[in-house]
Amino acid sequence: MSYPGEGAPLSPSEERTWGMVAHIGVLVAAWFAMGFLCPLVVWLLYRSRSEFVRRHAVESLNFQLSLLIYAVVAGLLIVITFGLGVIVVLPLAAIGAIAALVLIILATVAASNGRDYRYPLTLRMVK
């Protein structure tokens, strides 16, 4: 019996497709506040079949986990300042959301073109 992560290496076309899914799929998962799930699933299923897909999935996963950590810190800032932090956090969150969307699109295009992509301001927790 074989598992999805086992099997023949992926073709270059499949590598680009799954690399793109690792990035753009977060937009679907983000509706459920679980943006990290899509790159995690892609990484778990294809990490042993393609180094290219593994790199893109890890990069996307680290970016999504970084965004989650930044959101928790922002929430703590609001709580610690008894709500006054909202004055700073809301504008930064809006700018951050737009920047994240642009970066996700850039990463998806890079994967589509067979290039690597590194997100800025990302904590690299998963190797």
Architecture overview:
This protein is mostly helical and 127 residues long. The chain has one domain. Helix content is 67%, strand content 0%. The protein contains 4 helices and no strands. Its main location: membrane. It is a multi-pass membrane protein. Keywords: Membrane, Transmembrane, Transmembrane helix.
Helix and strand content put the structural class at mainly alpha
Describe the global form: elongated
What is the H-and-E element order? HHHH
Q: What is the number of domains?
A: 1
Oligomer: single chain
Topology (SSEs and partners):
Blueprint: H1 12-29, H2 37-46, H3 51-80, H4 86-112
Give the key terms.
Tic20 family protein, transmembrane, membrane, elongated, 127 residues, transmembrane helix, mainly alpha
Overview in brief:
The chain is built from four helices and no strands. The protein has 127 residues and is mainly α.
